[in-house]
Amino acid sequence: MKTSTSEHKEAQQERLNSRTQDQQMLNEVVKGTAMSAWEASSVIEVIHEVYFREPGSGLLRSGQIRYNCTRSDQGAGKSIKECQLVSCALTLIEKEDQHISGGAEGMRRHRIMRLCEEAGEQKGLLTQEDLSALLSCDVRTIRRDIKHLKEKCEIMVPTRGHQKDIGPTVTHKGVAIRHWLEGKEPQEVARAINHSLKAVERYLGHFSRVVFLTGQGFGKLQTAFTIGISMATVNTYMELYEHHRHSPGFRHRLAELKAIGESHFQGGDQKKGVLLQPAESNNFKGN
Questions:
Q1: Where does residue 183 rank: exposed (0-12), middle (13-18), buried (19+ CB within 10 A)?
Q2: 36 found inside a domain
Q3: Domain membership flag for residue 103
Q4: Per the domain annotation, does 242 fall within a domain?
């Protein structure tokens, strides 16, 4: 009996997944505590939140490398040789990559967006030459991919050469949230920006929680700690909230946004938040 190509790919992906650090930890937790695999997965999520909430702050995970790139505060007119560098933890391979469509080209564009975002969160900027080296392709290919993302997906890739005037509304997170506020469902958003559904749902969930916790009087540091994301990401979502808060789409999604925030608040965010003193409330009322 012949095995299909898709079955071969699934088997290959399963073998790759089984060799990740998370899978190794899951196996050890199940073996040592008699927890179910589902319970062990929840424990691993908490570990990620506590130890890896700031990009680059912990040990490298499977699929990550450490890479030196130009610091984001170095002026565009400064030559690369004169620029100060920052060491960033960058993710070349992620488990959810298996859900990206578009073959090798789609995967490369997805990784371009992720690498640039991760560098930015760690106060670094990648050049097109950096991306070329990281993704093993020529600079012309990177340039063509960046042009495609801008023209077809409305996403500006924040490389060093395009850093000026790039706000959060034109990054892939910002475009994802805009599509959602305009009425697209998460699956449609994932197709529009060539991301996995899981990644899009994570962006929307984090955005909703940041906005909700701000309304509960949580400061930015407290919000970052509670959700398990970086301060840079909290700042991005707050800028997106300020940009969209008066839009018809935001009012349309307001009940859904509050429901997401409330469910997480009751499910654990409230308890995590008391570990840090609340800052002065921003009094978010959804308007």
A1: exposed
A2: no
A3: yes
A4: yes
Query: How open is the CA angle 161-240-117, to the nearest 5 degrees?
Result: 40
Kind of pairing between the strands at 124-125 and 85-91: unpaired
Spatial separation of the C-alpha atoms in residues 206 and 213, rounded to whole Å: 10
| 75: containing domain | 55-161
Backbone phi, psi, residue 25, to 5° = -65, -40
Q: Is 277 helix (H, G, I), strand (E, B) or coil?
A: coil
Query: Are residues 100 and 197 in contact, defined by beta-carbon separation less than 8 angstroms?
Result: no
Mean pLDDT of the chain: 84
Residues 185, 251, single domain; the answer is yes
**Mean per-residue pLDDT, 26-30:** 77
Assess whether 66 and 155 both reside in one domain: yes
**Residue 173 CB coordination number (10 Å):** 25
Write down the pTM of the prediction: 0.73
> Does residue 209 form part of some domain?
yes
Number of domains in the chain: 2
Render pLDDT for 120-131 as a digit per residue (tens, 0 to 9).
988 999 999 999
Confidence of residue 229 (pLDDT cuts 50, 70, 90): confident
Give the span between the Cα atoms of 174 and 100, in whole angstroms: 19
One-letter amino acid at 242 equals E
> Kindly report the CA angle at 108 between 88 and 187, in degrees rounded to 5?
100
One domain for residues 60 and 149: yes
